[in-house]
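Step 1: inspect the first sequence and its tokens.
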Amino acid sequence: MTDPNISFASRTSLRETLQGRIDSKTKPIGALGRLEELALQIGMIQGTAHPRLTHPHIIVFAGDHGIAATGLVNPYPQAVTAQMVLNFIHGGAAINVLCRQHSIALKVVDAGVNFEFATDDSLIHEKIAYGTHNYLETDAMSREEAIRAMDAGRQIIKDLHREGCNCIGLGEMGIGNTSSAALIMSFVTGIPVEECCGRGTGVSDTQLETKIATLVKVYAKHAPAITASPDAITILQHVGGFEIAMMAGACLQAAALNMVILVDGFITTAALLLAVIEDEKVKDHCVYSHTSGEKGHQRMLGYLNARPLLDLGMRLGEGTGAAMAYPVLQSALAFLREMASFESAGVSKSE
């Protein structure tokens, strides 16, 4: 979060300095639209009138969900999670392509995949368990596991920050995780779970009806406990996923270290909802990369009063929306850094 030791007067002065730099560029005031807003936001996050993005990373957290083994909420088998993690490691997924294109480092985390991966330096091994339990029958995880997962997410960010990273994008992989995200969304926002539940990896109309009916049952089962104690840990314990828990912890730690957070799509935003329960100021550090094609994401964004940068109809996950949005942030800081001012260019300002 913003350093509490920085006085209100100092922050006000910084904002005025940044805005002055932006307005002095050779353009009409406001002519660069969202780029100007981003330059101001990133400067305020970093606490400097000369912000820069260094060593950007996208971190893909992967985990399995016990509900997926039932086939009630997803058309793909649970084994696809591990198969896609191997695809990330071998460089063949969409997020690999986009990260290479935009010179973004990619880290992949085994948060709780139901598979034993070989020792691989390119995979961060933080497995809490081999997937969550089936929350149609019991809690998704123990309270201790939820805490461990959030702490693991925090530690990963601390490690990256020590290496000089000041901008992260969060992504995920986990068959069945749109169901967990829909339940989290419903518990946090109060929107009925039926209105939060979408097609995920592409279920048919009949499968969608089954998915919604299943999640309504899950909601009813866990509502008494969550309503009694609606904090992030409790919600994760009952209906969360290990990858979602780690992303929530990552958001909290990144904000604490004054890093820029590129929020991806539906599942990542669900993790952010949990982080915001813990500290609302996390939102100040977030850039919302895009509007997902997954049902419910737009309403999530509305709940957060967020304006996404892009709307490309994407709903892949993996952090792909964050990777697409990153060049927009680069452009915002490039104009602030390189564009001439009216004074330096000898251009007359309009009266």
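Step 2: inspect the second sequence and its tokens, then contrast the two.
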Amino acid sequence: MVEINGTILIQIANFLVLIFVLNIVLYKPIRSILRQRKEKLQGLESGILIAAQQAEERNQAYSDGLKEARLKGQKEKELLMKAATDEEQAMVAKINAKAQQDLAAVKEKIAKDAEAVRNTLEKEIDAFAGAITQKILGRTA
């Protein structure tokens, strides 16, 4: 059995000195290393979160830039198509106007030629009538 005497005080003092020495030599460095490790992990986690956030922002900026470039390209395409359509319509209108002028000139030439032929035939109508009469009746008129 354990006897309670003066050695218990020495053992308590020895235990307290041992705890004090172990605290200085062993526990404080281990707690310091654990605290440093925890701080480092927290720093790395925050760095990862910041990097992920920056990557998401860059991805969003890239997507927005791509969308904007597509819209700009589409607008330019529409402008070019409109310009081409306008130019095509102008060319067609010019060609139609030229064709109308040519058609009017041809109609006028045909009318002049028809009038000239009619005038020529009217001058020769008496001669033709006489020739037809002579052939039908067999005599000279």
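Step 3: confirm your contrast with the notes below.
The chain is about 95% helix and 0% strand. The longest helix spans residues 7-137.
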